[in-house]
Specification:
heterodimer, A: 206 residues, alpha/beta, Rossmann fold, six-stranded mixed beta sheet, four-stranded mixed beta sheet, 10 strands, 27% strand, globular, B: 439 residues, UDP-N-acetylmuramoyl-L-alanine:D-glutamate ligase, Protein-Tyrosine Phosphatase, Chain A, 2 domains, 14 helices, 17 strands
């Protein structure tokens, strides 16, 4: 299995490496051979070789630079998603997959357009997903707390280590990715999830 | 009117000072009465402003000591805050009622987000930027926003003193007519070829976007870099330090109370600034060798027959937190590490936890560490972070009841105890240790 962690050194504002680490730990636990490819602006991308593509969040300037690089592979990405291959996008990188970001043409996988405005922050506890949002993206179709889906593309404005904080989500995601019912040792992750909700969310309405 | 405001503020300062309080209250009153009060003051011969993600207080404190030792009249905002109230308080302290200055030197530590507010009124002679990195993203936004805000507020008459080793800081030197002095540290035994953190804040040339090549890293994003197209190379230094057990610069030798790289940078920038401002060189060296600065972030105490160390570790500021972790990993002997916080931030009630994954907790993957005690309401979140970094969960102990966690730590410690705590618990432990006569 080949995991492409795109722009690992460029779009990495919110602890994104946590997602890669937990995927790798779980695959190892199940003795599934895998390789993480750390790829970025200087690299040539070969989408036909990847089983999972992950992209995290970055500064507004960096996002546009990454978009320029990624746009070279626009057709490859579209084919990759149409072929039901896996993508996970967290944070403002999801902006790149719409029609445009302000006046910049984007990848056109989805129909939304993104404008930039004032910064908004929010703790998320929605559809049982825990997380945090901090961005200035205004998406014409989706809310910040949505999980944006198309085939096996999963995108969200929720930041960073979403797979580590949400044990049920990581199970679902990795079972789908491997097309197997994997073994999991997520007792600590589940305890942390439950404790966080008990401490801070019990009186919060979803 | 302004005279009256100053009199009121000075009275407030006097009373509070007598009560033994360091405060930003006088400045707050003055600003309340006239929000443009900072326009009223004459600046002394030398004004030095210091900002950066870490080391502001140490640098301002050390510069204060150098100038005082060298016979100058100097005022600093060391006791107050580094926000606009604290800055104003210090300037009031340094001024007469008619707004004229009564000191030779003003040394001001200023929070990154308040630079623009203060520079609207004051153009300092020197502006030190010691480092810049991701820090409290929920408060500040990311470092590009912080950079742009500071960059716009710099007047071209200000002499910039910049850390050449930090590529985010040298960006301030691009496209500017200002006088700039660079300082940096040569490769030393603590330098590494590879970066010790997963996430660099600036890995690419800001001009051509090619990946910067680092010959070595000193810590964090700081090191010796160049762009493959030579568009963005580490500037050559006006003052370059050599770190061994001591710091050598311009053939002078300065003792250090610890060899942590951030301390060496802090001392070096103070030496640089004082030299640039033509302070007597012998006096600079002597004062630096006689520094009696209290290190705020480190307290030592006794646990049974072993050593206990409190290391103030700032949530959401990986550059600072990593320094605590590196300190622990450099120490010898059997260790117990306690980690905890009761709030993510002292400033807001937003519980982002992503920053935990930008801190190099992998350093705790170390045979010399017997036990790891995780404290407070986020104990399990910390456990998950450590486990994700392949630290063995068998070593973990949990103490959710933070109020009694010091006792728990003292009871369960094997070897030396290192407590990596946020402000909330760090100060609680200091109080509790003092009550017991342990500190």
């Amino acid at each position: 299995m080949k995991i492409a962690y795109l722009y690992y050194d460029f779009l990495n504002l919110y602890g994104e490496s946590g997602n890669i680490k937990i995927i790798s730990n779980i695959l190892k636990y199940n003795k599934i051979k895998h390789e993480v490819l750390y790829l970025s602006l200087d690299d040539k991308l070969e989408f036909d070789k990847y089983d999972l593509v992950y992209i995290g969040s970055g500064t507004e300037d960096n996002l546009l630079i990454a978009l320029k690089h990624l746009s070279k592979y626009k057709n490859d990405i579209k084919k990759y998603i149409d072929d039901n291959k896996f993508v996970l996008v967290t944070g403002n990188s999801i902006d790149m997959f719409g029609k445009k970001i302000e006046d910049n043409k984007a990848l056109n996988i989805f129909d939304y357009e993104v404008t930039k405005g004032s910064r908004k922050m929010e703790e998320v506890y929605h559809n049982n997903i825990l997380g945090f949002i901090n961005n200035n993206s205004y998406n014409s179709e989706y809310n910040d707390i949505d999980i944006i889906r198309k085939n096996n593309f999963y995108g969200t404005y929720i930041l960073g280590p979403i797979l580590v904080r949400n044990p049920e989500f990581v199970k679902l995601f990795l079972n789908n990715l491997t097309n197997k019912k994997l073994k999991y040792d997520l007792k600590l992750e589940t305890k942390a999830y439950n404790q966080f909700i008990k401490n801070f969310k019990e009186n919060v309405n979803e | 009117m302004n005279r009256l405001i100053i009199i009121i503020s000075k009275l407030a300062y006097f009373v509070l000072h007598k009560l033994g309080r360091g405060t930003s209250f006088p400045g707050k009153i003055a600003l309340k009465l006239n929000k443009n009060i900072l326009n009223y003051f004459e600046m002394p011969r030398t004004t030095i402003f210091v900002t950066g993600t870490t080391g502001k207080t140490s640098v301002a404190g050390t510069l204060y000591e150098i100038y005082k030792y060298s016979g100058y009249k100097v005022v600093s905002n060391l006791k107050g805050s580094n926000l606009i109230d604290g800055v104003t308080t210090a300037i009031i302290e340094a001024s007469k009622i008619n707004g004229k200055t009564k000191v030779d030197v003003l040394v001001i530590e200023v929070d990154e987000r308040y630079v623009k507010k203060v520079f609207k009124f004051i153009t300092p002679k020197y502006f030190i930027i010691n480092n810049l990195s991701r820090d409290q993203l929920a408060r500040n936004g990311h470092f590009e926003l912080v950079f742009k805000e500071i960059d716009k507020s710099i007047d071209e008459k200000t002499h910039l003193i910049l850390n050449a080793d930090d590529p985010l800081v040298t960006k301030f030197g691009l496209n500017k007519k200002n006088k700039i002095t660079y300082y940096g540290l040569k490769e030393n035994k603590y330098s590494t070829k590879k970066n010790r953190i997963d996430t660099l804040d600036l890995a690419y040339c800001p001009k051509c976007h090619k990946k910067l090549i680092f010959d070595y890293f000193n810590y964090g994003n700081l090191g010796y870099y160049h762009c493959p197209n030579n568009d963005y190379n580490r500037p050559s230094c006006d003052f370059e330090g050599i770190l061994t057990k001591v710091l050598k610069v311009e053939n002078e030798t300065i003792k250090l109370n610890n060899t942590a790289l951030y301390s060496a940078y802090n001392i070096l920038v103070c030496y640089t600034t004082a030299r640039v401002d033509n302070v007597d060189k012998d006096k600079i060296v002597k004062s630096l060798n006689n520094l009696s600065l209290k290190v705020k972030r480190l307290n030592e105490f006794k646990v049974k027959n072993n050593k206990g160390t409190l290391l103030l570790s700032k949530n959401e500021t990986p550059l600072s937190y990593n320094q605590s972790l590196e300190y622990v990993s450099r120490e010898k002997g059997t260790k117990t590490v306690a980690i905890g916080f009761t709030r993510v931030s002292g400033r807001y009630d937003l519980k982002d936890l992503s920053w935990l994954y930008d801190i190099n907790f992998e350093l705790l993957n170390d045979k010399s560490i017997e036990k790891i005690i995780l404290i407070g309401p986020f104990a399990y979140d910390l456990a998950v972070r450590l486990k994700t970094g392949n630290v063995d969960p068998k070593k973990f102990l949990y103490c959710l009841d933070y109020k009694n966690s010091l006792d728990y730590c003292l009871k369960h410690t094997k070897g030396d105890l290192y407590c990596l705590l946020y402000f909330d618990l760090n100060y609680l432990y200091i109080d509790q240790l003092k009550e017991r006569g342990l500190l």
